[in-house]
Amino acid sequence: MYVEKYRVPKQQRSHRVHPATFLRIFNCLYGDSKDEEELYSELTGKNVHIITTIQSWEEKLTEATRDGKILVANFSTPWSGPCRSIAPTYGELADKYPSLMFLTVDVDTLAEFSTSWEISATPTFFFVKEGRQVDKFVGADKVQLPKKIAAVAKATRV
What we know:
It holds the Pfam family Thioredoxin. It is built from eight helices and five strands. The chain has helices spanning 2-6, 10-13, 19-30, 36-44, 54-67, 81-96, 111-115, 144-157; strands at residues 48-51, 70-76, 100-106, 124-129, 132-138. The protein has a five-stranded mixed sheet with strand order 1-3-2-4-5, with helices on both faces.
């Protein structure tokens, strides 16, 4: 059959490269010197902490608990369209609500850690108080995310 003749053998189909891995290789070969933290900080702003190691996650979690803040963790990737589109809004919210601690966790760099949070799509936002998840928001909805964060910020003042 015509289709069978041009079908890629199953063994070759399983060797796909993850988009983030492809971007890293491409950037190394063709000179984009920005690392992931630079990419995230351009998108999110100065009040969002970029998490690329378990140690930095634990430090920020300890800091938020010590300061009595709710931690808002955005699990995302720098190459995803929805993640990139919500990032400026997320950065504005970080500026607007200093009573909360805003993090962006790179799910590619911290793949095993991110898997432990059972993320089904990016971006996924977790609200963590005293080390425990208290709420979750999935998606890049620029109307609903600010409402959710405003409600969380209001609840922390009560």
